[in-house]
User: What shape does this take?
Amino acid sequence: MEIDSLDIEILKILQNDSRIPFTQIAKQLQVPDTTVHFRVRKLVERGIIRKFTVAVSAEKLGYNALALIRIIVGGHIVKDLTLKRTREIAESLMKNDFIRLIGVGDEGNELYLVAVARSEEELE
Assistant: This one.
């Protein structure tokens, strides 16, 4: 799955603003807009671009409390069981409206969460 310098430049632009029209990307990179359209479609098909997203300002929506949470999932001797349980817990936690991001530690037995709420009391 090799990508060339043009693909990389397209990705950089899209990471900065995923709503930018392909015609503007083409103009910036001095290539036809059909080339940009084709390249982006291929990047999506190959799974390099997984989704186009929006970055929301939590503060402007009234979410002023932020918590960084570390959860250690333990007790299993068999690493695969711990990793499976960690994933189950992560999937369950993602259903909570306060959770914005979940990461799994290198060993597979730690979860790192980012939670936001309107107040510290709401986080409790």
